[in-house]
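Design job #97: recover the sequence.
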């Protein structure tokens, strides 16, 4: 059905549409589109002729959301009135619950997995072409090519001021972000495509897209995103490990013995390239910022360390209008305590246990990204979870419409 293509494109572009305001108070364009998907998916779930016997919906994220909700409800009972914002907690859970529902349920009923796989790579390649254009434009012609669409209003007020952004770039160093809000957001999205290209044979039984993977890696370096560099090295390392482990031959041993010394000797020359050097210097800056975020947990005492202070209640509890940087780990630890963090770890362990090699690498990528950024609670997290739950789970070429569910999902693909 063509309608499933539309839904797939909505999900693929959610990290981009989340940048812009819908002109409805407090809602981005992505929120409006996801609410539409929610309503439509509810219709499919509760149709009278729905048969759940053969469904393979991954509900683990919904159970995780329920666990966080219970912990936050208990935490609210132990907070003083001036430490509690019920409205913010409810708002956070409505958004988080929507994200998890879309990944688990709408991702099952309404998404075309082939389109998700192929066109996610297409969008990433387009983003990388533009980031290359931005870099060349800046260093050769001194041009600041915009990352935002001119006629749309960003949700972050600072991005309305173009002069502010240009001065920021000039004072420090140029950090292109393609058509994403930040270089980190670009790298989070493109890392999925890098993994897909390298493990294309595991997913589709066709040759890996090595040239495309190299091109995407260049884009990740040009973005100067430290996490992008970290994780591209990790993904390439996992790819080489898989190749050597599964297809170890005499010729590959000789190639490895030749390539490894050549690569090691070339590191000093590569590092002295200005863009590369800047990117690697940011690795250490980001590590320090990530470590500092864990100090927020020192504000909790006694029982609060076990149940947290309620998800979404961080600003009100700390008495801050603007929160300091927090990654997904510190958000979970601070708002749901040791118990919530244990549930979070169990959730990822469960995903690893039920996955193939490509899925495991993507799960580990999401886990590591969550330790340094808030990707798990962001729109990009939806894309990661749909790929983990459904797209990478089996051979994409063997996807066939499920006969037992043809009436309720229009022949949507399921894995045999």
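Job complete. Output follows.
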């Amino acid at each position: 059905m063509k309608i499933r293509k539309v839904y797939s494109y909505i999900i693929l572009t959610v990290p981009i549409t989340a940048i812009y305001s819908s002109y409805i108070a407090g809602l981005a364009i992505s929120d409006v589109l996801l609410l539409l998907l929610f309503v439509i998916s509810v219709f499919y779930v509760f149709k009278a002729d729905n048969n759940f016997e053969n469904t393979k919906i991954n509900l683990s994220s919904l159970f995780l959301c329920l666990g966080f909700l219970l912990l936050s409800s208990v935490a609210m009972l132990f907070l003083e009135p001036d430490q509690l914002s019920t409205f913010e907690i409810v708002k956070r859970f409505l958004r988080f619950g929507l994200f998890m529902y879309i990944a688990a349920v709408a991702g099952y009923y309404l998404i075309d997995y082939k389109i998700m796989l192929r066109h996610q790579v297409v969008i990433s390649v387009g983003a990388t072409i533009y980031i290359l254009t931005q870099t060349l434009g800046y260093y050769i012609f001194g041009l600041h090519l915009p990352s935002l669409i001119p006629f749309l209003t960003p949700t972050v007020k600072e991005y309305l001021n173009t002069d502010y952004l240009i001065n920021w770039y000039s004072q420090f160093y140029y950090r292109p972000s393609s058509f994403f809000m930040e270089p980190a957001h670009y790298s989070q999205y493109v890392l999925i495509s890098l993994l897909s290209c390298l493990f294309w044979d595991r997913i589709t039984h066709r040759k890996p897209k090595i040239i495309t993977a190299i091109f995407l890696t260049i884009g990740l370096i040009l973005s100067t995103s430290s996490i992008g560099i970290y994780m591209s090295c990790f993904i390439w390392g996992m790819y080489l490990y898989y190749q050597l482990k599964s297809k170890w031959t005499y010729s590959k041993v000789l190639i490895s013995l030749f390539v490894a010394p050549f690569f090691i000797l070339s590191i000093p020359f590569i590092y002295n390239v200005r863009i590369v050097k800047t990117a690697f210097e940011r690795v250490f800056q980001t590590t320090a910022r990530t470590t500092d975020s864990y100090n927020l947990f020192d504000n909790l005492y006694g029982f609060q360390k076990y149940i947290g202070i309620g998800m979404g209640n961080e600003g009100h509890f700390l008495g801050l209008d603007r929160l300091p940087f927090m990654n997904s780990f510190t958000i979970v630890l601070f708002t749901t305590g040791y118990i919530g963090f244990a549930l979070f770890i169990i959730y990822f362990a469960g995903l690893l246990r039920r996955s193939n090699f490509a899925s495991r690498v993507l799960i580990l990528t999401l886990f590591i990204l969550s330790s340094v950024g808030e990707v798990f609670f962001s729109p990009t997290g939806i894309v990661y979870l749909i790929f983990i739950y459904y797209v990478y789970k089996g051979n994409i070429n063997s996807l066939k419409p499920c006969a037992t569910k043809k009436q309720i999902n229009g022949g949507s693909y399921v894995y045999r």
